[in-house]
Amino acid sequence: MTSQGTLGVAVIGTGRMGADHVRRIDEVISGARVAAVVDIDEARVKSVADGIEGAVPYTDPAAAMADPAVDAVLIASPGPAHEAALLTAFDHDLPVLCEKPLTPDPASALRVMEAEQKLGHRRVQVGFMRRYDAGYRKLKALLDRGTYGRPLMLHNKHRNADTPPGFTDAMTVHDSAVHEIDVTRWLLDDEITAVRVLRPAPSGNAAEGLSDPQLILFETAAGRLVDTELFVTCGFGYQVVCEAVCEGGTARIGDDHGVFVNTAGHWGGAITPGFVERFEEAYDRQVQHWVNATRRGEVEGPGCWDGYAAAAVCAAGVRAQESGERVAVELIERPALYR
Ligand SMILES: NC(=O)c1ccc[n+]([C@@H]2O[C@H](COP(=O)([O-])OP(=O)(O)OC[C@H]3O[C@@H](n4cnc5c(N)ncnc54)[C@H](O)[C@@H]3O)[C@@H](O)[C@H]2O)c1
Ligand SMILES: O[C@H]1[C@H](O)[C@@H](O)[C@H](O)[C@@H](O)[C@H]1O
């Protein structure tokens, strides 16, 4: 850190999310600066570094993490590249904010968790940014206070206008439903124990071979049921809605509440186009909290255990998709570091 305590961050992966995090750290976040940017695509990393004072471009994550100006790492490369980047960060004992997923499968998530335990302290915050969304935080506070009694069920809707090319059924779980997996565990303070997936006749807008929409059902250890409509080619916009059904009332967040317009032949408002707009404040808050905690020498928020548990539920979810059966989630006992 500089003498003023400014955190030098290396951002690994400068695609859609990484480039946005670089902009965020440069323009929005206080107490941090972009010290290095890394991408295997040399042209891309150079163009992202251009115009950011002091940001050194690298094509090798390990070289960036060895740079003495780097105090912390934000990983925004694709999920399969996360394990290697995390293990290298541990070699340098660097604090990490790792975009979801921690890793794409439970075996690799376990390896990361074991390596972190060898360090003897938590180093990783996982980018489950919904925990930093104002609506989800209000819902969490209501549930924690028991304002409407015990929560019994959650109903979620997760709709994307469309998907990047090559999006598969498994990605609907790993990439999209992983957020509902995390908010279910967090909101209810409960583990998901089994998954079922129901698939109606697919929408004609879904690419060949993609089963969209889907209905995913989670059972939890405390006997709650959580359903999620996942519709990633809905075509009309981005919607993430969560309704908690409690013994004494229900509470719902996520409906669009922008400007309401009446005009000839039309009433209503605009729909949110995508996750960047819907969760912009949540991404800002997530990164600011990470920077603040890191500068205090602390680690907060969702960690490796949450990333591992999410990967275990995803693995069960993909098996449930393939088999059409109820699949139990296999979890190891929670290690002491994460209790
Ligand atoms: N929290 C959210 O809402 C959210 C939204 C979108 C993506 N994500 C996550 O962010 C991460 C990145 O997603 P994206 O949409 O920006 O992907 P992207 O494909 O747009 O960008 C990834 C970038 O990483 C680079 N890259 C690939 N392998 C690398 C490696 N080994 N080292 C360094 N760079 C490497 C690629 O060249 C590319 O520029 C993923 O983990 C994804 O799941 C999170
Ligand atoms: O990677 C993205 C991202 O995680 C979004 O938050 C989610 O809504 C999308 O479904 C997913 O594809």
Automatic annotation (TrEMBL):
It comes from the Bacteria. Residues 8-128 form the Gfo/Idh/MocA-like oxidoreductase N-terminal domain. Keywords: NAD, Oxidoreductase. It holds the Pfam family GFO_IDH_MocA. It is an enzyme of class 1 (oxidoreductase). InterPro entries: Gfo-Idh-MocA_inositol_DH, Gfo/Idh/MocA-like_OxRdtase_C, Gfo/Idh/MocA-like_OxRdtase_N, MI/DCI_dehydrogenase, NAD(P)-bd_dom_sf. GO terms for molecular function: inositol 2-dehydrogenase (NAD+) activity; nucleotide binding. Residues 141-329 form the Gfo/Idh/MocA-like oxidoreductase C-terminal domain. Its EC number is 1.1.1.18. It catalyses: myo-inositol + NAD(+) = scyllo-inosose + NADH + H(+). Involved in the oxidation of myo-inositol (MI) to 2-keto-myo-inositol (2KMI or 2-inosose). Homotetramer. Belongs to the Gfo/Idh/MocA family. This is Inositol 2-dehydrogenase. The lineage of its organism: Bacteria, Bacillati, Actinomycetota, Actinomycetes, Kitasatosporales. The gene is iolG.
